[in-house]
User: What shape does this take?
Amino acid sequence: MYTRFDVKIPERWSGLKLYQVLEHCLPHAELSLWQKRWQDKHVLVNDLAIPWDGLVFQGQRLCYWVADYQEPSVPTDWQLVWEDDELLVVDKPALLPVSRTTRNPTQHLIGFVRDSGFADAHLLHRIDIETSGLIILGKNKKVAQYWQPRLQELLVEKIYHARVWGNPTWESQHVECRLSTVKGSDIRCQMHVVDQGGQLSITDCKVLKRFAHQSIVECRLTTGRKHQIRAQLSWLGHPIIGDKIYSLNGRFYLKRLSSELSEEDFAILGARHQQLLAYQVTLKKNGSLLTIHSSKDLQY
Assistant: This one.
């Protein structure tokens, strides 16, 4: 039995050779197995076979088949916390993909929500696989198409909680900087604070709890840039516990590209996943405000 995977080539893979992209798709698969699939015409780009070392570019569609593929297990304890006639707000556990991924083509949040009785549910936005907490969905495609371009009007406030290394010297901190990827970075998706260019990124932080060597920090977003909270907290000297990119110079993110992390690695990271929770959203509909909280908490 074969499982089919479809991947739209993202910007970060654009210009790579086919075999380099395949290594990203299933990082722990032997390259020789990928070459056998390619020889058997089980790897196509835009429905065509291309050379093993041919280049692929952003927007192209990579399709491949894997025999007897078994998806990694994922947590399934998501919760519906609010709904009206148009929208759903669900509480996602950490390590559950929001939608189809190269590793989990069938087991993901949107699939579980659709299987629960909301067959045409569509995401209005996303959060990282390792982040837990609240996500808003439309009950059908038409609703999602209406609200996606109006998300800023609907989602008027979003608050995260982060468990970070260390004790900040401040009780509250207004963080305003510019974030961008940096050419030549070992981690191509990593966001860096830059002096020029990039996107203006604004967060208001407040310490909620302090422990011996850790703290819980509330992060109130004004903008919503890629990796905004993770990059800013690291820049402030208090990276999120368990963050494989923004703590410990990204060494465990780089290691995971070629091998599984060990229990010792997770002990050094402080957690198996980044300790970031989408804790609260405030929605504005029909002139009324509604604040919804996650049922989850960041336990010390």
